[in-house]
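Retro notes - structure team

What went well: the batch runner handled both jobs without manual restarts.
What didn't: labels got mixed up in the shared folder, which is why I'm recording both outputs here explicitly, each with its sequence directly above its tokens.

Job 1
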Amino acid sequence: MDQLSVLRTSTLQSVLEKELEKAVVSGQIAPGARVNENALAGQFGVSRGPVREALRALEAAGLVYSIPNRGFFVRRLDLMEAAHIYDVRAALFGLAGETLARNASDAVLSELDRHLAAMDEAARARDFDAYYPLNLSFHRYIIEATGNPVLANHYLDLVKQMHLFRARSLGPGGGLSVSNAEHREMVEAVARRDPAAAREAFAHHVIRAKRRLLAAEEKEKSLPRVD
């Protein structure tokens, strides 16, 4: 295979992975649903081979799973699995905070402040639809600013798995303002160049989000059902 063919194959693979990931993470393909490889191949104008390779990449990232002779299915997380993912994320995010406190430039601190200001505005307006993507962007910026690609890859894979759970954990009970107050504690620890305080603030932020999720799930279970 010549270099141009390799490049085309690699680019197609990357595009397919991103589009399929978007469909899974957004809920367009629902948790537990079987992925229709033939329909996707037709949609993208490719054979089933590239679609299957893209799905294997999503399987490695924990977003789908395969059953022999049946195909690929979107992974459905139960609450215990979600809680375990939060615990691992807390450890990774704590490391990110410690790393930033040691290495963050003034430009990084300015960008973190800009994110905080934008989220403050959305929180005051109680605008979840505005706050949520800003929150995702803030966390992604932090992870990428560490300059540690291994940390970034592992953390972002976990975020993809927890996307729908985390959306619920920010919702009622003043969650937006509470969440951004925690963000401010994190940034202040980084600005003080205090690695231990930053590690604690960053890890506790994820653990508190886990507690909000568990509380929201418990509240949902206690509501009367209307059939």
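Job 2
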Amino acid sequence: MTPVQVPLFQVENLHVAVEGVEILRGVDLTVGSGEVHALMGPNGSGKSTLANALLGNPAYEVTGGRILFKGEDVTAWPTEIRGKAGIFLAFQYPEELPGVSVVQFLRQALSARKGVELSVLELRLSIMEWMGRLGMDPSFAERYLNEGFSGGEKKRNEILQMAILEPELAILDETDSGLDIDALGVVASGITEVRRARPGLGVLLVTHYQRILDRITPDVVHLLVDGRVVTSGGPELAKQLEAEGYVAWR
């Protein structure tokens, strides 16, 4: 018998509350290895709530359902354990870490991911290689994490983290938010470059807009409205939503 293939990532009937108010009301989602899934929806539909719940933010209480990673129930796992296991979240608004350089942060994060203490020297070649591939100035490595970064620099730094940490699943929460067309192109190219290096990477791309999907073609598009996935389809669904808006689905 052929063994049953376990999906990379599954969300089953997920219910999530914030401060006692239910935001997600039964979300189902499956992302396979190497697939790109786009999650779209109007403001207040629960997109960022889902992203935070998937990474284990304690402010987001799972009240029902479960989250599976490579067939294992990770619903109760804390954030750092999910990160070590290979789940990565790129934040809509990355935090600043004054006094901690990009290279120091990456050393600590990768050491935790690999379970082995790495030196800066061990990492520097890989970081410099990826900075070159992502079109980043080498001096960027010594800057304090996100301190004084432009919106585009913050997002590009998130892509650098995704490249270095080698996750198996990347959840990109509105990575295109606030970017001009040039910065959007750089970020989209970076995501494409990381996927080229790691073809098994599964991606859940949370976005309001079609524009990034013109550059990164999703395998599946999901529409989240009022805490539920109300329909799913191919790239044509994103184009329909861009043209018609969300009114018909409310």
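One thing worth noting from job 2: The longest helix spans residues 181-197.
We'll revisit the folder naming next retro.
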